[in-house]
From TrEMBL:
Microtubule inner protein (MIP) part of the dynein-decorated doublet microtubules (DMTs) in cilia axoneme, which is required for motile cilia beating. It comes from Balearica regulorum gibbericeps. Residues 61-168 form the DM10 domain. Its main location: cytoplasm. Residues 1-24 are annotated as: Disordered. SUPFAM superfamilies: EF-hand. It is found in: Cytoplasm, Cytoskeleton, Cilium axoneme. This is EF-hand domain-containing family member C2. GO terms for biological process: regulation of neuron projection development. One of its GO terms (cellular component) is microtubule. It comes from the Eukaryota. Pfam families: DM10_dom. Keywords: Cell projection, Cytoplasm, Cytoskeleton, Repeat.
């Protein structure tokens, strides 16, 4: 016998029938109706509990993206109405509040109850679940339709910009690498012309131009291919920000208040861990290492306040004097008198209802922008 080819002795199993679901009837939610078709004993739809715990409010981290929007309409009454769109990252729900404006005849307040919003143009009675608005669908310049109302997103708060830039892998409109690559593909054939246009905008060669001329140049170069949020991201990345000198006593007073409220007194242990990580026993540690150690101790301070404090105790080589840092935080031994005023340059102090400027920069450093875009000019 030379042929050892196996011979099938069992009949092939029949293909499994594809499970089909009946279309949505309109009663209850789509998810609840779908779960009732999964088995004889209906179960409630499962929520993403892990996402809820990760993206729930924690201290000053609200995990809520807020945008300023206006209605897309030709009505002279409705076109000046302003709305605050809040997107809750913990459960992908959206709420809309209308900004109160005096002498308009419109009361303002709650405009849309918090909940998930379906994207328009979908069939109602279908078997597949509907698509809902996600965080990536909201950015400056986006047009969205909520239950028949067309909105144009015109601005966002500072927390939203910072969150989207920190999570740039999730938001392409806030990813400076993706934006520069996209812009380079469009503008590289005209690199010399673009350099000349930027130079003509800065006749005194200050190496800085204002944001509005910079935006107009980007719009003319891209011919409207970039969203407003992408241009804002470039402006924020290369912008010259309004910096003010923060008072060390003010920062320590704020830190002491937070440490007292949370009864934090593990200063000796914190100092011992910092000293243990100082292998060379030089009395200084890198900024990021000190921040990581403080986070491991669950220091009850906001991340921005912690980084500002660490910066105050840095030397010229960005090394933190951790002994002075811990002594400054020790509210038991080094008490600081309560502060009376906050020295922060506030704009429009008489009108708290107005939105703060979304781009706190004086100008744009266009030379580093051109070098990153086209390479350094010889």
């Amino acid at each position: 016998v030379e042929d050892f080819t196996p011979v099938p002795y069992k009949a092939p199993s029949p293909p499994k029938p594809e499970k089909t679901f009946p279309p949505y009837t309109g009663f209850g939610s789509e998810e609840d109706s779908l779960c009732s078709c999964m088995g004889l004993l209906p179960k409630p739809p499962q929520k993403d509990f892990k996402k809820f715990m990760e993206k729930d409010r924690s201290g000053k981290e609200s995990n809520i993206l807020r945008f300023l929007a206006k209605l897309v309409t030709d009505s002279p009454i409705d076109k000046d109405r302003k709305f605050i769109i809040s997107y809750f990252l913990s459960d992908d729900t959206i709420s809309v509040f209308e900004h109160i404006q005096r002498n308009t005849g419109i009361l303002g307040g709650k405009f849309l109850e918090r909940g998930r919003i379906k994207k328009p143009g979908q069939e109602l009675f279908k078997s597949k679940p509907s698509e809902y608005f996600k965080a990536q669908d909201l950015f400056v310049g986006a047009r969205v339709c909520f239950h028949g109302h067309n909105f144009l997103v015109v601005d966002a708060d500072e927390y939203t910009f910072n969150y989207m830039e920190k999570h740039a892998n999730e938001f392409s409109v806030a990813d400076i690498g993706v934006i520069l690559t996209k812009l380079k593909d469009i503008a590289e054939p005209r690199s010399r012309e673009i350099r000349q246009v930027f130079a003509a905008t800065d006749p005194e060669y200050t190496k800085v131009i204002e944001y509005d001329p910079f935006r107009n140049l980007i719009v003319s170069i891209t011919d409207g291919a970039f969203s407003e949020h992408e241009i804002l991201t470039v402006g924020r990345y290369y912008g010259v920000r309004d910096e003010y000198k923060m008072d060390l006593h003010f920062l320590l007073a704020v830190a002491h208040e937070q440490l007292k409220k949370n009864s934090f007194e593990n200063f000796e242990q914190l100092s011992a861990v910092l000293m243990y990580n100082d292998r060379e026993k030089c009395g200084v540690l890198p900024h990021d290492m000190c921040r990581t150690i403080c986070k491991s101790f669950k220091l009850p301070l906001a991340d921005d306040d912690l980084q500002a404090l660490l910066t105050m105790f840095e030397d010229d080589h960005k090394q933190v004097d951790y002994k002075k840092f811990v002594n400054g935080l020790n509210w038991r031994e080094n008490r600081i008198p309560a502060f009376q005023t906050i020295k922060v340059p506030l704009k429009n102090e008489d009108d708290r209802g107005r939105q703060p400027p979304s781009l706190p920069v004086k100008g744009i450093k266009y030379l580093p922008f051109l070098d990153d875009l086209f390479g350094k000019e010889e």
